[in-house]
Design goal:
With about 100 residues, the chain is of the alpha+beta class. The chain contains 4 helices and 6 strands, in the order H-E-E-H-H-E-E-H-E-E. It is globular, with a radius of gyration of 15 Å.
Length: about 100
């Protein structure tokens, strides 16, 4: 019996997000991020939420966060000044797997 696997982008597309517009659960210190040479957040976030803008500064949108905590663990310079799980009823609802 063969089981067909769904590609990751399709699996992620099944998830539901209830974004808390009033209280972000991740907050960055942009000055600290600007000093960071390695910028591991650009590479480790499975949802690819960290990006460099045209000026080379980190831009980030917590709305599609998978709440895995990888960015928090990999940020050795402590540029992430707040990382908590979203308030009740907010955040991601995994729909598959």
């Amino acid at each position: 019996m063969s089981v067909e696997r769904m590609p990751a982008p399709e699996l992620l597309g099944l998830n539901r997000f209830n974004v808390d517009e009033e209280e972000p659960h991740i907050v960055l210190d942009k000055e600290m991020c600007a000093k960071c040479q390695d910028k591991p957040c650009l590479y480790v976030c499975p949802a690819v939420l960290y990006k460099l803008d045209k000026n080379g500064a980190i831009s980030f949108d917590y709305a599609g966060c998978l709440e895995c905590g990888t960015c928090r663990v990999m940020c050795k310079n402590k540029g992430i000044v707040k990382w908590v799980y979203p308030r009740g009823t907010f955040g991601i609802s995994f729909r598959q797997g």
